Amino acid sequence: MTRLRNVLSLTAAALVVAGCATATLTKLAYANAAVAYSNLGPLLTWMVDDYVDLSGVQEDWVRARVDRLMEWHRTEELPKYRRFLEASAVKAQGPFTAADVAEHQRELRVHVRRLVQQAMPDVAEFLAGLDADQAGQLERKFAEDNRKYVHESTRGSVEERRERRIRRFGDHLEAWVGALTDAQRAIIAEHYRSLPDVGDEILAERRYRQAEILTLVRARSSKEALMPHLQRLFVDLDSWRRPEFAQKLRARDQRGQEMFAALSASMTEEQRAALQRRIRGFIRDIGKVTAAT
Angle formed by the axes of helices 243-266 and 199-218, to 10°? Predict the structure, then answer.
């Protein structure tokens, strides 16, 4: 089950190069990851255009840079994901410990960091080219995103929100291992009910990043000036994240690792077989993508 959590995350990173996903794409990824991956380039270009109205020249530039990033990802990263998945399929035959989960969380973060840093020069160059009107569009889009986040994170009572998270996670997990037992659902429920709410801290960090980016864009900062700021905002988080929040996140990680270890120990042979089939399916899809390249 260690690998399950990281397979989910690594697959998301592989499918969603800039860390953005839609519900439709996620569903498609379960059905055919190769098709979902092949649609990422146009999707990411569209998403950028949704944040700022791109000129024709800018749209061509974004499309070319996205295509270049996708090519790098196919040739450099997907083979690494495939090796990870192949090792995961072997390990998925037995239970995992919390230490196993922690190890693979660290591995995942290395993959994500490499992806972010690969995209960062193009992001910096793009932001450096925005004009005042586009900066205003970006600010309005940030505000809209935040309103949606607040609405979703505060809709219903605390217990109702927690129950939604439990159901979503359970449904997501069943896509990988098949039907869950009552005991497994109880493990998930106990985990989510023990977690402190960090919604306010997450929103605060979002707003901080957004404000920093808008300040830099409105100052017409150069690509070279933007780069260290983006590195700080999206990679070197400990340089500015509040220590109390960092400690909460570490505690949540540890509790999550313990939950996955407990779920792993409780898996039936049928669930382990379903998990391996799902992993092997993603390996085949990666093979299709890399072969097409």
Answer: 130
- Residue 127 · residue 216 · CB < 8 Å: yes
DSSP state of 17: T
Give the per-residue pLDDT at 139: 96
The confidence band for 292, taking pLDDT boundaries of 50, 70 and 90, is: low
pLDDT digits (tens, 9 = 90+) for 99-122: 888 888 888 888 888 989 999 999
DSSP letters, 136-169, are HHHHHHHHHHHHHHHHHHHSS-HHHHHHHHHHHH
Q: What is the dihedral of CA 153, 98, 111, 70, to 10 degrees?
A: -60
Q: What is the DSSP letter of 261?
A: H
Say which residue the tokens 């400690």 belong to: 247
b vs e for 10-42, b when ≥16 Cβ sit within 10 Å of the residue's Cβ? bbbbbbbbbeebeeebbebbeeebbebbeebbe
User: 3-state DSSP call for residue 97?
Assistant: coil
Give me the pLDDT at residue 48, please: 87
Closest CA to 173 of 48, 111, 266: 266
Mean pLDDT of 17-34: 50
Give the start-to-end residue ranges of the domains of the chain.
2-292
pLDDT tens, residue by residue, 169-184: 999 899 889 999 999 9
Question: Can you say whether the dihedral through the CA atoms of 47, 175, 88, 2 is positive or negative?
Answer: positive
The alpha carbon of 22 is separated from its chain's Cα centroid by a whole number of angstroms, namely: 11
DSSP string, 225-240: HHHHHHHHHHT-GGGT
**CB 103, CB 134: distance < 8 Å:** no
3-state SS class at 19? coil
6 close to 107: Cβ distance less than 8 angstroms: yes
Answer yes or no: pTM beyond 0.85. no
